[in-house]
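Hey, I'm writing a tutorial for new members on how sequence and structure tokens pair up, and I'd like a real worked example in the thread rather than a made-up one. If someone can provide the structure for the chain below, I'll link this post from the tutorial.
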Amino acid sequence: MKALHRIFAIGAVLSGFIPLAGAQIEGPTPLAWRWVPASVDYSPDQAPLVVDGSVYVAAAQRIYSLDAKNGNEKWKFPLDGAKGTFRVQPILAGKTLVDVTDAGYFYAADVATGASKWMYQLRNMAALGQPVSIGKLIVYKRGDDTLNALDVETGLPAWSKPLPVETGFDGPMLVHGDDVIFADNNNQMYSVNAASEKVNWVRKFGFLPPSLVPQLLGDNIYMYSGQYLVAVSAIRGTGRWQVSLGQNMEYGPAIGPDGMACVTDDGKLYFFDLNGRRALREVVDLGSGPAAQPSAVGDKYMVPTMNGALNLVDPKTGKIVWSYAVKPIGGVAQKKEAAPVDTGFGTVDNRILTIPAAGAPILSGNTLIVMCDDASILGFDNKLGVDLTPPNVDMIFPPPGAQTPGSPPLDLVFTVSDEATGVNVSTLKIDCDGAPMTFTVGRDGVAVVHISFDGPNKPLADGRRIFTVTVADWMGNVTKKSYALNIDNQLPPLNAPAGLTAPKKQNRGKGGGAGVGGG
């Protein structure tokens, strides 16, 4: 590791931080509840606000307060709907909840009751991104490239005049003491004291990518700068250390009790201590790139991936101790461009998808809170959720009992799912008349057996063939289910419907790869 004497030639970014969790998720945890907002055209890109056992989430024209233990709605505000749409999640300033719509209207409500406190309208402009709370001030970015503040008690402007930032804003803001830190569009980082309304320091960087989410711990900011993991002083903006990663990383490092977890854009997970030294030699392959900011949940890390999985990883061993694939509401994603396919035997729905997380997982007491891209919120809890039910198994192509040729092209497609703790795909086995078959399975729970002349699964002989699927969930509940096909090789070849074809690579019993429908 080299001293950070050239940090500003490399680049960095700035954003909010996720506090360390005080509780612990040790392993597989049952789903206790799932909250779904009213039908709205809303795709979140942030985690909700979770404070003192309550979840505060903005969706379309309202802010909702939920009980973190059971997902029950406590209140919603404003009752008649806001002017404009809430595009960012609310913030908390003392006992006041504040959020702003894309039409430039600030709304403030009592955090306990949802009663309105005040409303403030920006004239002829919009606020940019999520505001931040600093003492009795709400600091926000304006569309005219200025920084300003509101008094949290009155909702009136608190600064003598807006602070101009001639090169605009890039990315979210970070709060350190009485200072707000942010990046501009000219690869510079600013620190502004909210009380004095003066700039503390400005630092020039080589590149400031807006998608990264650095983390604050004490007086240090930990973040990615190009292909470097760096630590920067929040007081002076100077670099403390840097270490070359040799590849592009996504979001920002997740800060745990003893170090950091860093994930690459292709789903490789690395662990470092707080001084930038590798804490684990092994690299964890998550099988998919990150969907949202990873987070520490006690002494382990939760990493959401684009294949819809929530992966709990032990930094001491590098093992994925739990992986939960989030399914769409109702089990099928309703996309206009995807429609059921008539196979000749019946209709097969090829819209099987998983839903990625929209923000970092948050631990509230014993409850793990995760917001998803479909705007639903999931609550996992060992004390409230119980999983005594084994996984569901279905054969979706060819339909069970069908008469079909046993020669290529032929793909046998199965789905496995478990709503409570998820399917442990490493336990999945598929056999034909007792003989093991090779298959490919993704975290979406779609398993494909590819029949070929030169592969491990040879053409099937005429007659009645029994296919048995055995799989367990993460709590050890096991399902064993059999299906029959009547093989007649005089029939013409049977092609699987679009969207249900097998990947080229076959992995017997290996989960987490590029499975059908979103690996």
